[in-house]
Design brief:
The structure is a homodimer. By secondary structure, chain A is of the alpha/beta class. In chain A, 40% of the residues lie in helices and 14% in strands. In chain A, the strands form three sheets. A seven-stranded mixed β-sheet of chain A has the order 2-8-7-6-5-3-4, sandwiched between helices. Chain A starts with a strand and ends with a helix.
């Protein structure tokens, strides 16, 4: 049995979602854009999924667009929202690479990119962020939950402050690590654009969602049959979308139970780790219960990760989506001291984790860290 | 039991593919970009899928890119291939809306769009197409198999002629209705870019493929974690991709049997229809065995389609992907006489169809067409 603690990277598909995927793969496989009554039923099922998701997130069905995933949602938000040819874009230093690299692309097209600082625990430095917003700011991007430390930003407050400085600035929050993991009501948050992905909450890979507030104009990146009101052409991955509605529903139902469990899991791990020195929890306040980022002094996170695999334990090192890049922007942004900076691991929980698994993780973490430090000491002598 | 004859719109997922989808949803669900050994195994499985697909299509693994579907593949091809800021683009009048509308988008950005005529059976008018290619042609788009009539264009010959007029022109063929349905060796065809989609060949919706010939430069439309060598960032829909490799393999294995069956199915339908007047087969030569486009005089295709549903028979009217538009570009392009133009239905076969089903379709077609004509006659009196 695998003890999987990398649920920020991706998750196991829920059995209820799987039943939906299978149903739309071999029974209701009809193309929702075709003319038969069977196709119309499928199109109707899509409409119901859209309404259910909107309802769960406090918005209208007409504001929900389905995409191929978080990255595409983020890109449509960043690249599709601009209405003027110039201006500046304010973005936090810890945005997911899908947002950060899309913004960088705009930099190469003549927009001025202003990168706001991050606090040492991974929260956005709100003061610095707001100081960068001015009358020429066309887009402001501030993620909801950091995929690296779990830091939860006060999206409602940041949004209100940005809008009060410049009410024409389009505001976007990446909610990929928020939806289904902390309470999310997009209307309450007030942002113009909000994105999330299915595979982070026990839905299928290959499906994402973008909220576009009524009245906010957005352009598409691809063109074709006019699906998703023209914003995202292409035959819909129907099972994936209807499965996403189920995944959101299941996640919201379980939110309280998960939160209590995960808070307890963190406590158990802290108690375990109290037995050793030289570690820190990278974000302790205003943090997602689902994410625990730890740094170990004089230990390489990646070596630790592979050692834990010997016990069938999987943890993460940072964002899976930027693992091709050598160093995390986050580690730089939060200014981790050098002896801690290579020893980062990210533990992220799901409903499939048990207390016994967490205790095993705690025990093996101590064992492996001690062992690695002994080996290093041996090498030094 | 449903008798499904709209396999150009989409297909039922094959059971072998479904097993793969399920396996990667609940067992090997790891993110291929994460650092664990389990993730590396998944990344390796993706590499094997890429090699298998490349091998089946006569190209190299490094030339195969996975996307979210045919529409995205077409859009990357059209919007990502251009290296100069101006010039003309030659496109056939019958391209799929994903190609046609992406090209139209370029028209709004200052490129000159030249639309080549179509012959009356839906083939590209090659002479007209080539006459439009000149030293300023930056992109030429000629689809492989028409999704409306099934007309198979001589892609190899068109490509060679375009290149001999201007060897800098990037050539692109949309192979969505070709791969798995007729023999396809992309290297033999010689084009720079070639696209196809999984859900047309019993794979999952939400997955597509783009071939980019070695040495051809192409830009991405989305930015992020750098997956697919940076061309298509975003967590891969792993099961869908590996399922696509299986779908291509299964389709190629069955190509000869399918072709013989489908050729026979067409003959059976023609024999049935010999009993009534006032119909035509829109494309009879150089046509995909999988597609039979029929026009019935003084009959509305959509009404016919819904009548056939009473017998649990599903056929198509035209491209599902452009069904939101009122009239098919194809019907206009091939110049169907007005009394035929509204009576188009598209029958498209798959391996799940049986001879008995085809005979049933033939019988019910005659019955419904006769009935509709009687009703119309009654209305006129």
């Amino acid at each position: 049995m695998i003890h999987y603690f990398d649920n920020c990277a991706t998750t196991r598909v829920d059995d209820d979602v799987l039943r939906i995927l299978n149903d739309y793969a071999v029974e209701k496989y009809y193309n929702p854009s075709a003319r038969s009554t069977f196709s119309m039923h499928v199109a109707n099922d899509l409409a119901v999924a859209r309404e259910n998701i909107a309802d769960k997130l406090g918005v209208s069905a007409g504001e929900i667009y389905f995409t191929s995933g978080g990255t595409e949602s983020d890109n449509i938000a960043v690249l599709g929202a601009l209405r003027s040819k110039r201006g500046n874009i304010v973005v936090s230093a810890i945005e997911h690479s899908a947002v950060f690299n899309a913004v960088k692309e705009l930099g190469s097209k003549g927009y001025e990119i202003r990168i706001a600082n991050t606090l040492t625990d991974g929260h956005i430095d709100v003061e610095d962020f707001l100081s960068k917003v001015d009358e020429y700011t066309v887009l402001a991007c501030f993620m909801h939950v950091s995929n690296e430390t779990g830091a939860v930003n006060d999206v409602k407050s940041i949004n209100a402050s940005v809008k009060s400085k410049n009410n024409k600035t389009v505001t976007f929050s990446d909610g990929v690590q928020a939806v289904g993991k902390i309470p999310v009501n997009i209307r309450y948050l007030g942002v113009d654009l909000y994105s999330f992905a299915s595979h982070k909450i026990h839905g299928s890979k290959g499906v994402g969602c973008l909220f576009v507030k009524n009245g906010v104009k957005i352009s598409s990146l691809v063109f074709g049959g006019g699906q998703e009101k023209g914003l995202r052409s292409g035959t819909e991955y129907v099972g994936g979308i209807i499965g996403l509605a189920k995944a959101v529903e299941l996640a919201q139902k379980r939110l309280e139970v998960n939160t209590a469990d995960f808070v307890n899991y963190k406590k158990v791990l802290r108690d375990c780790l109290a037995g050793i020195d030289g570690w820190r929890e990278n974000c302790k306040n205003d943090v997602s219960p689902a994410i625990m980022s730890l740094s170990f002094q004089n230990v390489k996170g990646e070596v630790l990760l592979h050692m834990l695999e010997n016990y069938d334990i999987i943890v993460g090192t940072g964002s899976a989506c930027s693992s091709k890049n050598k160093q995390s922007r986050l580690v730089k942004a939060i200014g981790l001291e050098s002896e801690f900076s290579e020893g980062v691991i990210r533990i992220s929980f799901s409903k499939y984790n048990t207390l016994d698994e967490v205790k095993l993780l705690g025990d093996k973490l101590i064992y492996c860290v001690n062992d690695l430090r002994k080996t290093m000491l041996g090498q030094k002598i």
